[in-house]
Write a structure and sequence with these properties.
It is elongated, with a radius of gyration of 47 Å. Among the domains are: about 85-165, Alpha-Beta Plaits (2-Layer Sandwich); about 170-280, Alpha-Beta Plaits (2-Layer Sandwich), CATH 3.30.70. The termini are far apart. It has helices at about 1-40, 40-45, 65-75, 100-110, 140-150, 180-190, 195-205, 215-235, 255-265, 300-305; strands spanning about 85-95, 115-120, 130-135, 155-160, 165-175, 240, 245-255, 270-275, 280. By secondary structure, the chain is of the alpha+beta class. It has 10 helices and 9 strands. Helix 6 (about 180-190) packs antiparallel against helix 7. Keywords: Amino-acid biosynthesis, Branched-chain amino acid biosynthesis.
């Protein structure tokens, strides 16, 4: 009886231990299940914290020298803009003091601009001068140059009259020959050192002044003077000086009209020419009028693109 009782007690102890261990395993499984949903990332990092991450591959940067660096910079430089160059008129209001002209022109020269026309004059204000500059360039580049000039100390403001309605004027003084084209050709050949043969050939021409009677040469000279005078008056100019062999005409007009007048007088023989730069002043619009067809009311065809309309 004693042995059987001891065996039963031992069996009960073993079974109680097994039940306790199974309950502990169940609790651990519940913990793992609960942790897998909310702290799985933390568990992963904890398990892999001591794992060594392999190093990234490295590539040695090639060494640059001056030649290769300059070649790369030139290759990567964008192509210059192909926008057309237009004529721009800048009106600078500057202080009336020495050195301002060289300062402004030096700024434009540093940017590579070729000044087509430059006029500087005093104004009715004692310390104020007006400078009118005409140059060719792209709109964006000219705007940068305008701002750079405006930042100069002796410059009050720089106004761009390019797209404004302005009055343009130039002054022309021109000395033209009265002796005819043959004498003028001989004069050019003499100063070009073309030789006596060329000059002698020109002198033998029929209408050369030396081959005409004096009275006929005199009539021809005054016929030339009359033609020049009438042409000058048609352009609004005048003859300001007359000598026995040439005359001087004066004309104030816009640049295109000046160029046309010079072209018409060239066959007479232009001996000397002095042409001022362009001066400009903006026009004052009249209230209640529409100038040059700039009607503020737009047509429907200008606002709506017919190609974007649905088919009818």
């Amino acid at each position: 009886m004693i042995r059987l009782t001891g065996i039963k007690t031992a069996i009960r102890g073993i079974s109680s231990r097994g039940m306790a261990s199974s309950s502990i395993c169940a609790k651990n499984m519940n913990i793992i299940r609960s942790s897998s949903s909310s702290t799985s990332a933390l568990a992963y990092k904890t398990l892999h914290r001591n794992r060594r991450i392999p190093s990234l591959p490295t590539v040695e940067t090639p060494a640059w020298n001056a030649d290769s660096a300059v070649s790369s910079i030139l290759y990567e430089t964008p192509i210059p803009s192909n926008l057309p160059k237009t004529q721009h008129v800048l009106n600078c209001l500057v202080q009336n003091e020495p050195g301002v002209l060289s300062l402004v022109s030096g700024t434009l020269a540093a940017r590579g601009f070729n000044i087509d026309s430059l006029v500087v004059c005093n104004t009715e204000v004692k310390d104020l001068s007006r400078m009118t500059i005409v140059l060719d360039g792209q709109d964006g580049v000219i705007e940068q140059a305008r701002r750079q000039i405006e930042d100069l100390v002796p410059v009050y403001a720089v106004l761009d009259y390019t797209h404004s309605q302005i009055i343009k004027r130039e002054l022309l003084l021109l000395r033209v020959s009265l002796l005819g084209q043959e004498y003028f050709r001989e004069l050019i050949a003499h100063h070009n050192h073309e030789g006596e043969e060329v000059e002698g050939k020109i002198r033998k021409e029929k209408y050369h002044p030396k081959n005409l009677p004096p009275s006929q040469a005199l009539r021809q000279k005054y016929e030339h003077l009359d033609a020049i005078t009438r042409l000058t008056k048609e352009f609004g100019g005048k003859v300001v000086d007359i000598s026995d062999r040439n005359c001087i005409v004066e004309l104030s007009a816009k640049p295109s009209r000046i160029s046309a007048f010079i072209g018409l007088l060239r066959p007479f023989g232009i001996l000397e020419l002095a042409r001022s730069g362009m001066m400009a002043l903006p026009r004052t619009p009249i209230e209640g009028t529409v100038e040059n067809g700039t009607d503020p009311s737009k047509d429907a065809a200008d606002v709506v693109d017919s190609t974007q309309m649905p088919p009818s």
